[in-house]
Design a protein that fits this description.
- This protein has about 475 residues and is an alpha/beta fold.
- Helix content is about 35%, strand content about 20%.
- The strands form three sheets. Strands 3-4-2-1-5-6 form a six-stranded mixed sheet.
- A hairpin with a 2-residue loop joins β8 and β9.
- α2 crosses α3, α5 crosses α6 and α9 packs parallel to α10.
Length: about 475
């Protein structure tokens, strides 16, 4: 390894960092990046697997090979400059090196077992000892590995936070703002006009300096509800929706039970919104509202041709191949929440099973695995993506970029129920797209509050 200045840090990357973001080694600016040989071995194993992350492994390997292809073995160990590569405005200026931990003397190893995590931690500890004047940082998304590394003597252990947009989930955009008291008592200098049936209010931007497009405005008295439709340097254009009108909207026989559901339903039924993001606790109505709105727009209004339903859990992310049947039959157990919602929507029909089969055929409802979404171009459809809190930003980008002309994507998820080993509420792809898309005029975010499933579910959500 080269001699480092006191201001240069050495970052040792775990395999899961390169699977989370294949070009992560370009994100450390002037600092040096070390890839342990163990990480290359793991990437080699994963790239040939049937896992969804196999593509990310291949992308990362190719990118590193492009940088190191002309380097000698000594140069690869010493470090190859990253200056001029793609990454940042002027590109990173640190070095990329491969650490051959297989040759590490046994007396230098803190962990003697041959587990991959232990070998990577040993690399960090060895670099920390051999470069006492340089800050050595082990970067991993594995929480347990971070604990093990600290316990073994690693002074700096971090999560990868380059794609983390907020520090705490409480700062996440909710999709609406609540005015204290009565809205009209808080706002002056308002100009109103009629556009057909709609009333548009122009209010000073100073009232809501951080407003963004498609954000709802409500007040504590439940007398005003509006939607921001335009923003310029001085004025905000607000569509007057009216609380009573919002609460009276219906889709496939479903009527909102609270103002949050009413705002969500308005957005779901708006053909000008291409992406709807719904977050909230279990039982807040995310899946039911999405399905009801989708059926209304496909069957009743003929606005779309079909409904594609998909979701991601850690099990699906591995493979659905062990289950018998076709792709849709394989996906059925994972998408029971959708069929449960269909039963709720048709519980008053005499022949529920027959009615459900008829509706599924008429609405052309298709169950798909997220593994098979890559490479597709989905036209004139409604795509319902459930449990999206378990996806990374890269995986969500893959799904969003599949949506072609006339397609509406509905993402739902509960950030309090993340099953992924390497994601938290602030690093989830769902959190990432909420923040990234909040200024996009074709998207809308709604955070549903309260549990309407049952009093039992509400008590469990609030107390357990």
């Amino acid at each position: 390894m080269p001699i480092h200045s006191s201001s240069t840090k050495i970052y040792v990357l775990d395999t899961n960092i390169l699977l989370h973001e294949p070009l992560a080694f370009l994100s450390f600016q002037e600092h040096d990046v070390v890839i342990p040989m163990t990480v290359l071995e793991e990437l080699d194993y994963i790239k040939d697997s049937k896992k969804d992350v196999a593509r990310d492994a291949r992308v990362s390997i190719r990118a590193m090979e492009n940088i190191l292809k002309d380097a000698s073995p000594e140069e690869m160990t010493h470090g190859v400059s990253l200056a001029g590569t793609v990454g940042g405005e002027h590109g990173p200026s640190g070095r990329l090196s491969i650490y051959t931990d297989l040759l590490m003397a046994q007396e230098l190893q803190v962990f003697t077992s041959n587990e991959n995590d232990n070998r990577i931690i040993n690399v960090g500890l060895d670099l920390q000892q051999s470069h006492p004047d340089t800050t050595v940082v082990l970067v991993t998304k594995d929480i347990n590995m971070r604990l093990k590394a600290k316990g073994a003597g690693m002074r700096k252990v971090e999560d990868y936070r380059t794609d983390q947009l907020i520090d705490d989930i409480k700062y996440l955009c909710k999709g609406y703002v609540i005015f204290p008291g009565d809205f009209w008592s808080q706002v002056t200098d308002v100009q109103s006009r009629q556009e057909g049936r709609d009333t548009i209010h122009s209010i000073p931007k100073s009232v809501l300096p951080d407003a963004y497009i498609n954000e709802f405005i409500i007040d504590e008295t439940n007398t005003f509800a509006g939607l921001i439709e335009g923003i310029d340097q001085e004025v905000i254009e607000v569509l007057d929706l009216g609380v009573e009108r919002l609460m009276s909207r219906q889709a496939w026989g479903i009527q909102p039970k609270n103002i949050g559901q009413a705002m969500a339903l308005h957005t779901l039924l708006d053909p000008h919104i291409d992406l709807v993001i719904m977050t909230g606790p279990a039982g807040s109505g995310k899946t039911l509202l999405a399905l009801a709105a989708a059926l209304e727009m496909v069957v009743e209004k003929n606005m779309y041709d079909k409904i594609i339903v998909t979701r991601s859990t850690p099990e699906i992310a591995e493979s659905i191949g062990f289950l018998p049947g076709t792709e849709e039959e394989k996906m059925a157990p994972w998408l029971a929440a959708i069929t449960d919602s269909l039963e709720v929507l048709h519980k008053h029909d005499e022949n529920t099973s027959g009615s459900m089969s008829y509706i599924m055929e008429k609405a052309n409802i298709q169950f798909k695995s997220v593994n098979f979404m890559r490479g597709r171009s989905i036209q004139n459809a409604i795509v319902i993506l459930d449990e999206s809190q378990n996806l990374t930003a890269s995986q969500l980008k893959t799904i969003i970029t599949r949506c072609g002309e006339g397609t509406k994507l509905i993402c739902g998820g509960n950030l309090a129920q993340i099953d992924s080993n390497y994601l938290s509420a602030v690093t989830s792809g769902l959190t990432y797209i909420v923040e990234k898309f909040k200024h996009f005029e074709g998207s809308s975010t709604i955070t549903l509050e309260g549990v309407v499933r049952s009093r039992l579910a509400e008590f469990a959500e609030n107390t357990l």
